[in-house]
């Protein structure tokens, strides 16, 4: 597919909240500075068989940590108790994992994604009290080499070649309320 004509900044509407949180325009050669941003990774997530128990919302302890050194993007962890193989331990649960999306940008956990913000997700965790994973599902996950997304050439019926983002099946523990 051919690229569209060049878009100018004047063409675009302001971002929501830009008055209080000014946005910075990144374009041209500056785009290369984004190579370390938006990196996919998984930490402190739930595995099949785990039960994670959460305190009341008012008693939750949340830590935020930059995704990478100097990054403004944050990962949020909530303190909880994890039961694995019958043993209960203190644990940090990666709340960002509730908003995970597949290679086609579809939410893996739509009910959590649609809550819209971190506090609403924490409130729901507190309301449920505990979550578990009884099964895994395979999702198509984006493929990266280093911090760069991998694209494959695909030949169309008419002979044109297009770039298609590479994806690979990856197991994900499916989160449900614990009984």
What oligomeric arrangement do these chains adopt?
A: single chain
* DSSP E strands, number: 10
- Spans of 5+ residues with little confidence (pLDDT < 50)? none
Strand content range: 35-45%
Distance between the termini: 50 Å
User: What about the largest sheet?
Assistant: 6 strands, antiparallel
Mean pLDDT: 86
**From N to C, what is the helix and strand string?**
EEEEHHEEEEEE
Number of DSSP helical runs: 2
As a whole number of angstroms, the C-alpha radius of gyration is 20 Å
Envelope shape: globular
Describe this structure in words.
The structure is a single chain. The protein has two helices and ten strands. It is mainly beta and 179 residues long. The strands form three sheets. Strands 1, 2, 3, 4, 5 and 10 form a six-stranded antiparallel sheet that branches.
